[in-house]
Write a structure and sequence with these properties.
Largest sheet: 5 strands, antiparallel
Strand order of the largest sheet: 1-4-12-7-10
Distance between the termini: 32 Å
Strand content: 35-45%
Number of strands: 13
Structural class: mainly beta
Length: about 180
């Protein structure tokens, strides 16, 4: 239940910020791709974008449903990601991320030593979260580009919020 409340709360933040920044015209910054392809421009009036801003240390404690905090200044990042069909690269994020699938079907595959490979599929209107430092990748299914809104917390100020896993170190989920 707590995860559902957190997911719904932060999904609302992500969608609201996505609408606010929809006028941005930057290129996509997705683990799936690093530039927007013509075939991915499915909804041209809302291009891919990334907006980020520093956020001073904070502590939000709303028992029993939400607690989030940081003692350091970090960036808060909002994105609209447009990704072509296929598997993305394995990667991690320094803080939690929340996503809403606006269009398409996205399979998130997570890997850990404890659980191995676990995949969940999300379709239009569904939200999901990614745990900080968890190895994962997105695969866009069904041959249709995916459009997602993302909210990312605890990104280093002006630093990378995605760290890619070298191919030789990537999980083998085909087993």
């Amino acid at each position: 239940m707590q995860r559902d409340v957190i997911r719904k709360t932060l999904a609302a933040v992500c969608v609201g910020a996505g609408a606010l920044f929809a006028a941005c015209n930057e290129k996509a910054t997705s683990p799936m791709q690093h530039e927007m392809h013509a075939s991915a421009a499915v909804i041209p009036e809302l291009p891919a974008f990334t907006e980020r801003a520093p956020l001073d240390p904070f502590f939000i404690n709303q028992p029993s449903q939400l607690m989030i905090r940081t003692d350091a200044r970090t960036d808060f990042v909002i994105q609209r990601v447009v990704s072509d069909p296929g598997a993305g690269k394995w990667h991690t994020h320094p803080g939690p991320s929340f996503g809403i699938v606006k269009q398409g079907t996205v399979m998130i595959t997570r890997w850990s030593k404890k659980t191995g490979c676990v995949s969940n599929t999300y379709t239009e209107g569904q939200a999901y979260y990614e745990v900080a430092d968890e190895i994962h990748r997105a695969t866009v299914l069904n041959g249709v580009p995916a459009v997602e809104y993302k909210a990312r917390f605890y990104a280093p100020v002006n630093g990378a919020f995605t760290s890619f896993i070298a191919d030789e170190d990537a999980p083998d989920c085909a087993k």
